[in-house]
Protein backbone atom coordinates (compact mmCIF):
# COMPACT_ATOMS: atom_id res chain seq x y z
CA UNK A 1 0.00 0.00 0.00
CA UNK A 2 2.82 2.41 0.81
CA UNK A 3 4.44 1.76 -2.58
CA UNK A 4 1.10 2.33 -4.38
CA UNK A 5 0.58 5.64 -2.62
CA UNK A 6 4.11 6.72 -3.52
CA UNK A 7 3.59 5.84 -7.19
CA UNK A 8 0.26 7.72 -7.32
CA UNK A 9 1.92 10.81 -5.84
CA UNK A 10 4.70 10.63 -8.42
CA UNK A 11 2.13 10.42 -11.23
CA UNK A 12 0.22 13.45 -9.97
CA UNK A 13 3.41 15.43 -9.47
CA UNK A 14 4.61 14.60 -13.00
CA UNK A 15 1.28 15.60 -14.53
CA UNK A 16 1.24 18.89 -12.62
CA UNK A 17 4.82 19.63 -13.63
CA UNK A 18 4.17 18.88 -17.29
CA UNK A 19 1.00 21.01 -17.37
CA UNK A 20 2.79 23.91 -15.64
CA UNK A 21 5.74 23.78 -18.01
CA UNK A 22 3.49 23.51 -21.02
CA UNK A 23 1.35 26.44 -19.90
CA UNK A 24 4.40 28.58 -19.25
CA UNK A 25 5.89 27.61 -22.54
CA UNK A 26 2.63 28.29 -24.32
CA UNK A 27 2.25 31.72 -22.64
CA UNK A 28 5.77 32.74 -23.53
CA UNK A 29 5.28 31.72 -27.11
CA UNK A 30 2.13 33.89 -27.35
CA UNK A 31 3.86 36.89 -25.82
CA UNK A 32 6.95 36.59 -27.99
CA UNK A 33 5.24 35.83 -31.20
CA UNK A 34 1.69 37.08 -31.58
CA UNK A 35 1.55 35.82 -35.10
CA UNK A 36 1.61 32.16 -34.05
CA UNK A 37 -1.01 30.38 -36.08
CA UNK A 38 -3.74 28.20 -34.74
CA UNK A 39 -2.22 25.14 -36.45
CA UNK A 40 1.03 25.56 -34.54
CA UNK A 41 -0.89 25.97 -31.28
CA UNK A 42 -2.81 22.73 -31.93
CA UNK A 43 0.41 20.92 -32.81
CA UNK A 44 2.05 22.17 -29.61
CA UNK A 45 -0.94 21.06 -27.55
CA UNK A 46 -0.91 17.64 -29.18
CA UNK A 47 2.79 17.25 -28.43
CA UNK A 48 2.22 18.17 -24.78
CA UNK A 49 -0.67 15.73 -24.59
CA UNK A 50 1.51 12.97 -26.03
CA UNK A 51 4.21 13.71 -23.47
CA UNK A 52 1.68 13.58 -20.62
CA UNK A 53 0.18 10.32 -21.95
CA UNK A 54 3.59 8.68 -22.27
CA UNK A 55 4.60 9.69 -18.75
CA UNK A 56 1.32 8.40 -17.34
CA UNK A 57 1.72 5.12 -19.22
CA UNK A 58 5.27 4.67 -17.94
CA UNK A 59 4.23 5.34 -14.35
CA UNK A 60 1.26 2.96 -14.66
CA UNK A 61 3.55 0.23 -16.05
CA UNK A 62 5.93 0.82 -13.15
CA UNK A 63 3.08 0.51 -10.65
CA UNK A 64 1.78 -2.71 -12.25
CA UNK A 65 5.29 -4.21 -12.18
CA UNK A 66 5.65 -3.34 -8.51
CA UNK A 67 2.25 -4.86 -7.73
CA UNK A 68 3.11 -8.01 -9.69
CA UNK A 69 6.38 -8.44 -7.80
CA UNK A 70 4.59 -7.95 -4.48
CA UNK A 71 1.93 -10.55 -5.34
CA UNK A 72 4.58 -13.01 -6.53
CA UNK A 73 6.55 -12.55 -3.30
CA UNK A 74 3.45 -13.10 -1.17
CA UNK A 75 2.50 -16.20 -3.18
CA UNK A 76 6.01 -17.65 -2.69
CA UNK A 77 5.84 -16.89 1.00
CA UNK A 78 2.47 -18.61 1.29
CA UNK A 79 3.73 -21.60 -0.69
CA UNK A 80 6.73 -21.97 1.65
CA UNK A 81 4.57 -21.83 4.75
CA UNK A 82 1.66 -23.92 3.42
CA UNK A 83 3.04 -27.15 4.86
CA UNK A 84 2.62 -25.94 8.42
CA UNK A 85 -0.13 -23.81 9.99
CA UNK A 86 0.71 -20.13 10.45
CA UNK A 87 -0.57 -17.31 12.64
CA UNK A 88 -0.75 -13.79 11.13
CA UNK A 89 -0.89 -10.92 13.60
CA UNK A 90 -2.56 -7.65 12.49
CA UNK A 91 0.26 -5.16 13.16
CA UNK A 92 2.16 -2.70 10.98
CA UNK A 93 4.50 -5.56 10.05
CA UNK A 94 3.18 -9.06 9.34
CA UNK A 95 4.55 -11.73 11.66
CA UNK A 96 4.39 -15.36 10.63
CA UNK A 97 4.71 -17.92 13.39
CA UNK A 98 5.07 -21.61 12.62
CA UNK A 99 3.30 -24.09 14.85
CA UNK A 100 4.59 -27.57 15.43
CA UNK A 101 2.00 -30.11 14.37
CA UNK A 102 0.75 -32.76 16.75
CA UNK A 103 1.90 -35.50 14.41
CA UNK A 104 5.55 -34.36 14.65
CA UNK A 105 5.32 -34.30 18.45
CA UNK A 106 3.80 -37.78 18.54
CA UNK A 107 6.51 -39.06 16.18
CA UNK A 108 9.23 -37.68 18.48
CA UNK A 109 7.57 -39.30 21.50
CA UNK A 110 7.36 -42.63 19.66
CA UNK A 111 11.04 -42.42 18.70
CA UNK A 112 12.02 -41.72 22.31
CA UNK A 113 9.91 -44.62 23.54
CA UNK A 114 11.37 -46.96 20.93
CA UNK A 115 14.91 -45.93 21.92
CA UNK A 116 14.12 -46.52 25.59
CA UNK A 117 12.60 -49.93 24.90
CA UNK A 118 15.60 -50.90 22.75
CA UNK A 119 17.98 -49.90 25.56
CA UNK A 120 15.93 -51.82 28.10
CA UNK A 121 15.94 -54.90 25.87
CA UNK A 122 19.70 -54.69 25.52
CA UNK A 123 20.10 -54.40 29.27
CA UNK A 124 17.82 -57.37 29.80
CA UNK A 125 19.73 -59.43 27.26
CA UNK A 126 23.03 -58.55 28.91
CA UNK A 127 21.66 -59.20 32.36
CA UNK A 128 20.76 -62.81 31.44
CA UNK A 129 24.42 -63.82 31.41
CA UNK A 130 27.36 -63.43 33.77
CA UNK A 131 30.91 -63.62 32.48
CA UNK A 132 32.92 -66.22 34.39
CA UNK A 133 36.22 -65.61 32.65
CA UNK A 134 38.41 -66.65 29.74
CA UNK A 135 38.83 -70.43 29.53
CA UNK A 136 41.04 -72.83 27.61
CA UNK A 137 38.57 -74.78 25.50
CA UNK A 138 39.46 -78.12 23.85
CA UNK A 139 37.46 -80.85 22.11
CA UNK A 140 36.91 -84.56 22.75
CA UNK A 141 34.78 -87.44 21.52
CA UNK A 142 33.54 -90.80 22.86
CA UNK A 143 36.49 -92.82 21.55
CA UNK A 144 38.90 -94.75 23.80
CA UNK A 145 41.75 -92.31 23.10
CA UNK A 146 39.75 -89.38 24.45
CA UNK A 147 37.80 -91.04 27.27
CA UNK A 148 39.49 -94.38 27.92
CA UNK A 149 36.18 -95.98 27.04
CA UNK A 150 33.78 -95.89 24.12
CA UNK A 151 30.39 -96.19 25.80
CA UNK A 152 29.46 -92.54 25.30
CA UNK A 153 28.04 -92.31 28.83
CA UNK A 154 29.05 -89.17 30.75
CA UNK A 155 30.04 -88.89 34.43
CA UNK A 156 26.55 -87.53 35.17
CA UNK A 157 24.98 -90.63 33.61
CA UNK A 158 23.64 -88.94 30.43
CA UNK A 159 24.47 -89.90 26.84
CA UNK A 160 27.06 -87.48 25.47
CA UNK A 161 25.53 -85.38 22.67
CA UNK A 162 27.37 -83.10 20.27
CA UNK A 163 26.31 -79.47 20.56
CA UNK A 164 25.12 -79.96 24.15
CA UNK A 165 27.58 -81.88 26.33
CA UNK A 166 30.72 -80.33 27.82
CA UNK A 167 33.12 -81.46 30.49
CA UNK A 168 34.08 -78.92 33.15
CA UNK A 169 35.50 -78.63 36.65
CA UNK A 170 32.56 -79.59 38.87
CA UNK A 171 33.99 -77.49 41.68
CA UNK A 172 33.13 -74.45 39.54
CA UNK A 173 30.16 -75.78 37.57
CA UNK A 174 27.75 -78.37 38.88
CA UNK A 175 26.14 -80.93 36.57
CA UNK A 176 23.30 -79.38 34.61
CA UNK A 177 24.80 -75.88 34.58
CA UNK A 178 24.17 -73.89 31.40
CA UNK A 179 27.35 -72.44 29.95
CA UNK A 180 27.54 -70.10 26.95
CA UNK A 181 30.60 -70.29 24.69
CA UNK A 182 30.77 -68.22 21.47
CA UNK A 183 27.03 -67.56 21.69
CA UNK A 184 26.11 -71.26 21.96
CA UNK A 185 24.63 -72.75 25.13
CA UNK A 186 26.06 -76.02 26.44
CA UNK A 187 25.21 -78.17 29.47
CA UNK A 188 27.81 -79.41 31.95
CA UNK A 189 27.31 -83.20 31.87
CA UNK A 190 30.86 -84.60 32.13
CA UNK A 191 34.21 -84.13 33.83
CA UNK A 192 37.80 -85.31 33.37
CA UNK A 193 41.07 -85.72 35.18
CA UNK A 194 42.73 -82.99 33.11
CA UNK A 195 39.75 -80.63 33.27
CA UNK A 196 40.61 -78.38 36.23
CA UNK A 197 40.14 -74.64 36.83
CA UNK A 198 39.57 -72.52 33.71
CA UNK A 199 39.42 -75.48 31.38
CA UNK A 200 36.46 -76.86 29.39
CA UNK A 201 36.20 -79.81 27.01
CA UNK A 202 33.48 -79.72 24.31
CA UNK A 203 32.06 -83.03 23.11
CA UNK A 204 32.08 -83.69 19.33
CA UNK A 205 30.50 -86.47 17.35
CA UNK A 206 33.85 -87.63 15.89
CA UNK A 207 37.54 -87.53 16.75
CA UNK A 208 38.36 -85.59 13.56
CA UNK A 209 35.93 -82.81 14.49
CA UNK A 210 37.48 -82.61 17.95
CA UNK A 211 40.92 -82.26 16.36
CA UNK A 212 39.60 -79.59 13.99
CA UNK A 213 38.47 -77.55 16.98
CA UNK A 214 41.96 -77.74 18.47
CA UNK A 215 42.73 -75.44 21.37
CA UNK A 216 40.97 -72.11 21.73
CA UNK A 217 40.64 -69.46 24.39
CA UNK A 218 37.06 -68.25 24.76
CA UNK A 219 35.04 -66.05 27.07
CA UNK A 220 32.68 -68.20 29.11
CA UNK A 221 29.30 -67.01 30.40
CA UNK A 222 26.71 -68.65 32.60
CA UNK A 223 22.99 -67.95 32.73
CA UNK A 224 21.57 -66.39 35.85
TrEMBL record:
Signal peptide: none annotated. Residues 164-222 form the 3D domain. Keywords: Signal. It comes from the Bacteria. This is 3D domain-containing protein. Residues 97-127 are annotated as: Disordered. The keyword Signal applies. CDD domains: 3D_containing_proteins (cd14667). PANTHER family: CELL WALL-BINDING PROTEIN YOCH (PTHR39160), RESUSCITATION-PROMOTING FACTOR RPFB (PTHR39160:SF4).
Amino acid sequence: MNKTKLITGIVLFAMTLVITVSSCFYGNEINNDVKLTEDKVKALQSVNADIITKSVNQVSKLSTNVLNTNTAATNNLLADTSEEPIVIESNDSIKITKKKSKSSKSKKKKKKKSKKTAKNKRKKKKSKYIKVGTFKVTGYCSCARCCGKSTGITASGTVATAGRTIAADTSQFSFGSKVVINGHTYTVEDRGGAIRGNRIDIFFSSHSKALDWGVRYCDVYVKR
